[in-house]
Amino acid sequence: MTATCPALRLSSVFSGYGRYDVVRGVNLTVEPGEAVALLGPNGAGKTTVLRTIMGMVKHWRGSIAVNGVELAGMKTHSIAQGHVGIVPEGRRLFVDQTVEDNLLLGAFRLRDDQARVRQLLGSVYELFPVLSDYRLRRASALSGGEQQMVAIGRMMMNDPEVMLLDEPSLGLAPIAVQAVARALKELRGRGRSLLVVEQRIDLAMQVCDRLQVLSGGEIVSEQQASWLDVEGRDLISAYLG
Fold this sequence. Notes:
Blueprint: E1 8-17, E2 20-30, E3 35-39, H1 46-53, E4 59-66, E5 69-70, H2 76-79, E6 84-87, H3 99-106, H4 114-127, H5 129-133, H6 144-157, E7 162-166, H7 174-189, E8 193-198, H8 201-207, E9 210-215, E10 218-224, H9 230-240
Parallel strand pairs: 3-8, 3-9, 6-7, 7-8
Antiparallel strand pairs: 1-2, 1-4, 4-5, 9-10
């Protein structure tokens, strides 16, 4: 590992289900403290890319490295030991448990370092003050936006080197989408490295430094968010369908 390693690097990654490739030769990097969006239509393979990084989908060939450490071939539980954390599509909270219980589950690997757990919990509550107010509420009593905050907070509690988010705006009201966008920008401002799967170009442009478009399991376009003009947005919109 060197100081110049990308936080996340995928090199010529192929993966899929059964005999079928879904991800085909994907090359992708996320630099330390950078947020990268992975855009694309339904069925493009975006979620499969995230699941491949997490070791949940068998990859056929190619390299997946976090800060120079090769993850390909690692078991999912080992990858989740601080290398990579994920907010899955649909949040997947324990809805009968309290907000704080859900958050503390994210810090299970750090359970022997209670000072660090308290520090991380304070960081989550600083980012999402409403969760501090609701910490003893069951997750089932929260709005969709608040549940997404819990899901992001649970990932933060694992203190991973790279954070993956799968469709963080899906199904949320506009005001909740903006709250999520602010939180992701704050995480990036704290030096966190993010790979965000999205279909909303507006959210991706608010949060991310670079936008990559996946179509048919392949990266077909890459744009710097700050340089993206109307023509570039139209091109991405065409890929999104």
